Amino acid sequence: MSYRSGIACLLLGAALWAGYAVAQDATPNSDQPAATADKSQADTNFIQRWKDDGVSLRFVWANDWAASVRGGERIGQTNGGGAVGGADLDMGKLADIDGGKIHITFARYYGHSISANDIGVTQKIQGYWYPKRQWQLGQLTWEQSFDDNHFNALFGRVNATWQFARSTYGCRFVSAPDCPYQLTNTTGGFSGFPYVNWGGRIRYQPSSLYFSIGAFEINPDRRNNNGLDWGLENSTGVMVPVEVGHVTTFATDPYPHTIKVGGWYNSADYTDPELNTRGVSKTLFGGTFRTYDGGRYGVYALGDKVVWKPDPTSDTRNLALFGSVSAPLDSAEIYTLQSTAGFVWTGPFASRPTDSLNFQASYFKFTKRQVQFEDDLLTKAKKAGSFSRNETMLELNYSYKLFPLLSLVPNIQYIVHPDVLGNTTHVTRVSANALVWGLRVMFNFGGPGSQ
User: Which residues make Cβ contacts (< 8 Å) with residue 60, sequence separation at least 6?
Assistant: First the structure.
């Protein structure tokens, strides 16, 4: 995506914000009776009119500038970002199909990655950067609710991590270990946004407690098209996740919480991260990576809770803690463990109730074979050294709301024991601990992290 396209996205975002601003002016104060609203003013807000008619728009544009100021493979700076937009169609209002909804999302990205270019890590330091600079279908699904919304089914072109192991607060951060779909980092079977496969899930939720099960196509070619190739000829298996959770909101709980526990089964064949078909290093001796029959498993758990409010009678300002852990149960993966913990402090200052101060720490433990693959790269280059199995990413950021939908997010990140799996070409040394400064500019109308 060119910078002209980026500017166009920004202008579109500004137009949407203008509509939102009109809505804010036209919406009555929540302390006042609804009947006192000026209906003629509300009618000027086309976004609200569309929503009332059954079309809810979404749009996010984020630009992440980052500078590696110490460590990594080299010092440098890059700029990257993207735009994600779409709509949710209420088919009850549009076609008299009660409980039906259509969700459609498109995405486009641009720029470069400091993770790959300067540090080498596989984790994204700029969360809104993706390597494919093309228009991408990110979702096209039908959702149907039954039994007074206690039973819900969704199917279509979708990725598994929009439906399972979804973090409440992950997208408050610029880096992307947990935004909000952490399992793409743990197993290749969990297809992640914006890439889509065929899939679906059903959910039974009689109360705050729910149970979900899904099935999603595994298709290694999904990254090489725009999401519009709907054939099954390149499918290699199916991924089946299950999840049990308990979720409350401010509407039902003054200190809401989320608890999710789940696991997955992956039927697709997979390759060894180090060895070739002869059982020796593929990096050093060539050949083809060894392939294993499908049958991978894994488990995860995540949760969060609002633990403090300066005013017990108000929900706007609060402090929430969160954490997660996920682990594959086989040795031929990138990681053997991933965990995340941190806090989101909304309204740290009474004069800035919608700002937030956010901290996140993510820990990754690599499998022995994956680390040996990295060490083999050094051996091949005739360099000394050894990579660590343990990697930690830290991020501290402050989200400053310039306007209701436009934020500036200065951030600082520190990576301990960086890997080189994001850029394995011409590896000549073990990367030093890396310090990164960054600034995100984000326009967010109804996207992840907007609340």
Answer: 83, 84, 85, 442, 443, 444, 445, 446, 447, 448, 450
> Which H or E element spans position 375?
helix 368-380
Which neighbouring-strand residues pair with 152? 145, 203
Q: Give the burial string for 24-52 (b: 16+ CB within 10 Å, else e).
A: eebeeeeeeeeeeeeeeebeebebbeebe
| Joined tokens for residue 237 | 């298996």
Cα dihedral 449→396→324→255 (10° resolution): -60
Rg (CA), the chain: 23
* DSSP assignment string, 46-108: HHHHHHHHTEEEEEEEEEEEEEEEEEESS-EEEEEEEEEEEEEEEHHHHHS-TTEEEEEEEEE
CB distance 107 to 138 below 8 Å: yes
Nearest to 264 by CA among 292, 299, 236: 299
For residue 345, the one-letter residue type is W
**CA-CA distance, 160 to 199, in Å (whole number)?**
7
User: Are 182 and 165 in contact, with CB atoms under 8 Å apart?
Assistant: yes
Range scoring the smallest mean pLDDT among 29-38, 183-192, 408-417, 419-428? 29-38
Positive or negative, the CA dihedral 39, 44, 45, 51 is: positive
**Residue 402, H or E segment:** strand 390-403
Strand, coil or helix: 322: strand
Identify which of 429, 441, 374 has the alpha carbon closest to the alpha carbon of residue 403. 441
Q: How far apart are CA 370 and CA 391, in angstroms?
A: 13
What span, in angstroms and rounded, lies between the C-alpha atoms of 342 and 323? Answer: 7
In whole angstroms, give the CA distance from residue 182 to residue 196: 16
Tens-digit pLDDT profile for residues 354-400: 999 999 999 999 999 999 999 999 999 999 999 999 999 999 999 99
* Residue 201 in this model has a pLDDT that exceeds 80: yes
Can you give the length of the chain in residues? Answer: 451
Handedness of CA 161, 165, 168, 173 (dihedral sign): negative
